[in-house]
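Example record

One chain of 208 residues, shown exactly as stored in the release files.
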Amino acid sequence: MEGTNPVNKKLTAALSGGAVLVVALSGCSSNKDSGPDPKLVAWAKTVCDAVPAQDAKIRAANASIAKIATDSNLPPKTAKETYAQAFQDMADGYKGLAAAISSAGAPPGVEGGAKRQQDAAKNLNGLATSYSDLKKKVDGLDTKDQGKFASGLHDVADQTKAIGQQSNNGTEALKRLEQGDVQAAIAKQPSCKVATSATASSSSKTAG
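Predicted structure tokens for this chain:
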């Protein structure tokens, strides 16, 4: 009988990109002596204030899957519930980040800022949709048949590869949004600094 452990590990590896993406949004530093435009700082605060709560959802989802990756004898029903909740939380987290960036509008005084902002929100919404689709797929898994359940989990794990690429695209979109004065403005936000520290800590524990 096939255990779920190998699939769990595969899912954990695929999902670890989520933490990196959040760091891309909040992992800012600036050596600029002159401060950014106050309007841009206010814009950054609107975005950053939404980061910790959504970051926490994404980190918790990654952690819950990482936790069951070490258990090859986990009952299918428990595994299914864990995956479903994790994917839902990740969908909610990315949707929340996208909403924060969308509602903030284009960063004021930034050339090309509107497109960069829209691209970042679009990528995050795409991730939210993908994780929501994964949640639906997990909801449909048959836990009464161990073989069918393991096969279904393999399909879910394979689907996360495409999401991994989406995560990479999202990271790049956020980095583009964060360039120049936007980075300096975000660097001033305590909420983004807190999220960066928490995410980095969580990533280190997962990697270990």
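Notes: Residues 146-177 form the longest helix (32 residues).
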